[in-house]
Write a structure and sequence with these properties.
Length: 707
């Protein structure tokens, strides 16, 4: 039976055949003439190996103690730079030849793959020798002459914090330093060089083209000159760079240049940002956060339940809008509605003051919007009996005359008995006044240009979950049963669980934004607080928290997921459900980590990470920190715990939010490259397509279009 090969397989096969021929056919093509001695097979040195021998001579000069110390230091730097360039250019060329199936042996008789093996052996030995000599001899000798090479970790904590503050808040930091009289020429020279070195180090992981595109336009040429230097440059070139720095200072451009460099550093430090939900639960002005995120160069968002309720409101869900307003009234964060989005609450306020009693346990506005919310939630639940949320239909169990509500057969005293719009015969219908208020509020929301633009951004750059580089990111949970199996949820005659449930939720959320039909709008409310919502993961007790003083009724049962995923077996089940290998990581938000009580955000042996540590100030006393940031780099994963942030003034005075606790909990066996990422997969697919296209052109399957 014939085997069928796809294009990439053919390319690999061709490469292997060519390698075999190159490595086995050692016959010299030139025939030896009569009476002529045959040419020795080793008459040629290998070009690449010969270059390594040359670089070894450079290393020997660095090790020659007859040379002045600075010369030895310079030769050591030249050796390292040479080796970097050798791998970036020469070795990269060998790899391209192998990948392309070009396996013609070199003049020395070695195939590209044989050359790579020999290079690896010699280069590793040279690198070890270089590192040993520099650390054991050159650096101590420099230290005796009071010359110390300071890396980041060698700066004092105060110096690190000062530099970070300068990068984070350059304008404010410079203004403060100017007021203190600290902006001397020496200060500028030292800190400009520190910023240049940091930017140079960060830029080394990108192509020059990508770095140029990230540079601020006004200083792009100068920054490019300063960044792309090499250790073996002559003194004249280094002096030229120093003159650039001096000119920047002399012309009064140092402040602007520092701001530009700081912007570039921040851009290079984070290539891509994942935000695992609940932007609208990060304090009273989420709109300001979204403004910053919309200007970010590369970002995605995994929606949280606090995001989805705003998205539902902006899509036209009255229940979601009532929940949004109630949350902002209760937590005194109305500026985002009125100042940021232009949604006036005047009509609601007037209706509340005219309808409800003052000083009766609750603020009249909170009373008004709470009743509206529970009526709209009741209507939504009644439209979907399969959601199994009848226990949330509590308005019908309220006895205003006695000021009590019956829950699960138990009477509870309520904070207020003021329910003038509640019709016992039809408890979930809005009064005429409530209907008018909600219609006008909905109109304001739908016509708020800023709100609609920001919610559009969340849809364009967001999703219910994300699979990225073998990891899965979602805000809350994958609903589970008590036995650890995935919970099935029925909606519109269909049943979903696991990844399918997430995919369905994502589709319906997008339908709500584009089509505004009642089914999808109701689903947005369910994602906010539904019993088996993957974005919430708990039974919300909004009614109890609003009306009952007894806090024992406030407990919100969590989905069994949160108990099971402490077990690596359960984590592996979730990862496999989303098509990830056992080496992947589940990245959650949603649940604040109680770091002050010793809770660790890394769970299940590193298979699960919770990065919602409570950025919002209201969480700081409970968690003891100000949130987590998970960092994935070529060397592994590390998590940073941020210290509570009070104000920018505190930052400038005390560097209060700059320093974080850093914990690397996972290390890769080798440094990862672009080829190990999802981008690498796409690039390889594009290369395969281009090769197939080229082959079709060469075979005459496609022809060049005549001009």
């Amino acid at each position: 039976m014939a085997q069928i090969f796809d294009a990439p397989s053919k390319a690999i096969l061709r490469s292997q055949i060519a390698e075999h021929i190159a490595e086995t056919n050692k016959n010299d093509r030139r025939e030896t003439l009569e009476g002529e001695a045959p040419l020795p097979p080793d008459r040629f040195f290998d070009r690449e190996l010969s270059w390594l021998k040359f670089n070894k001579r450079v290393l020997e000069l660095a090790e020659d103690e007859d040379q002045p110390l600075l010369e030895r230091t310079n030769f050591a730097a030249i050796f390292a730079n040479n080796l970097d360039e050798f791998f970036m250019v020469r070795v990269a060329g060998l790899k391209r030849r192998i990948d392309s199936g070009i396996a013609v042996p070199s003049a020395s008789g070695l195939s590209p793959r044989q050359q790579l093996r020999a290079i690896s052996d010699q280069a590793h030995a040279l690198q070890d020798e270089h590192a040993h000599y520099v650390i054991s001899h050159i650096l101590p000798a420099l230290a005796k002459e009071h010359v110390v090479l300071l890396s980041w970790d060698k700066l004092t904590t105060e110096e690190q914090a000062d530099l970070c503050t300068l990068i984070y808040y350059p304008n404010m930091k410079l203004r403060r330093l100017r007021e203190e009289g600290r902006l001397t020429g020496e200060w500028y020279a030292i800190n400009l060089m520190r910023l240049v070195r940091l930017a140079r180090r960060l830029s080394g992981t990108y192509t020059r083209s990508k770095v140029r595109k990230a540079m601020p336009v006004e200083y792009a040429y100068i920054i490019d000159e300063l960044l792309h230097t090499s250790n073996d440059e002559r003194e004249e070139r280094l002096a030229y760079h120093q003159r650039i720095i001096s000119s920047i200072i002399d012309t009064g451009s140092a402040d602007d240049f520092i701001c530009s460099l700081s912007s570039l550093i921040k851009r290079l430090a984070v290539d891509h940002l994942h935000l695992v939900g609940d932007i609208f639960d990060r304090g009273p002005r989420a709109d300001l956060i979204i403004d910053r995120l919309m200007a970010y160069h590369s970002i995605d968002v995994q929606w949280g339940n606090h995001d989805i309720v705003w998205m539902g409101a902006a899509s036209g869900s009255a229940a979601c809008l009532a929940a949004v307003i109630r949350n902002n009234v209760r937590y005194d964060s109305l500026k985002i509605l009125e100042s940021a989005y232009g949604v006036s609450l005047r009509e609601l306020t007037m209706f509340a003051e005219q309808t409800y009693r003052q000083k009766d346990g609750m603020d009249p506005v909170e009373k008004a919007i709470s009743v509206i919310l529970f009526k709209l939630e009741g209507q939504t639940i009644l439209r979907h009996p399969n959601w199994q949320m009848d226990d949330r239909l509590l308005l019908e169990h309220v006895d205003p005359a006695r000021g009590v509500v019956t829950i699960d057969g138990v009477e509870h005293k309520m904070r207020t008995s003021d329910f003038p719009t509640l019709d016992p015969q039809n408890p979930y219908s809005l009064s005429e006044g409530e209907q008018v208020v909600m219609e006008n509020l909905m109109s304001a929301v739908l016509h708020s240009e800023k709100l609609q633009a920001q919610i559009g951004f969340l849809y364009d750059h967001g999703s219910a979950y994300l699979v990225h580089n073998g990891n899965v990111l979602f805000h809350a949970c994958v609903p589970m049963n008590e036995d650890g199996t995935f919970c099935s949820v029925s909606h519109q005659g269909k049943t979903f669980s696991g990844k399918d449930y997430y995919d369905y939720s994502d589709r319906l959320a997008r339908r709500a934004w584009h089509e505004h039909d009642q089914v999808s709008l109701d689903w947005m409310w369910y994602l906010w607080c539904g019993r088996y919502s993957p974005l919430s993961g708990r039974v919300m007790k909004t009614f109890e928290r609003t009306y009952l003083a007894d806090k024992s009724t406030w407990a919100e049962p969590r989905d069994p997921y949160f108990e099971h995923v402490g077990d690596p077996v359960a984590c592996r089940t979730v990862l496999e459900e989303f098509g990830c290998s056992g080496d992947g990581v589940i990245i959650n938000g949603h649940t604040p980590v109680h770091a002050s009580a010793g809770e660790n955000p890394v769970k299940a042996g590193g298979m699960l990470v919770v990065i919602d540590g409570g950025f919002c100030q209201a969480y700081h006393q409970t968690t003891g920190i100000a949130g987590y940031t998970l960092i994935a780099d070529p060397f592994g994963m590390r998590i940073k715990a941020h210290r509570p942030f009070a104000s920018i003034k505190d930052v400038l005075d005390l560097n209060a939010d700059i320093m974080s606790d850093d914990d690397r909990f996972r290390r890769w066996p080798r440094p990862l490259t672009v080829g190990d990422t999802d981008d690498g997969v796409q690039i390889r697919e594009q290369i395969a397509d281009l090769r197939e296209l080229l082959a079709a052109y060469r075979n005459g399957d496609i022809t060049e279009r005549a001009r």
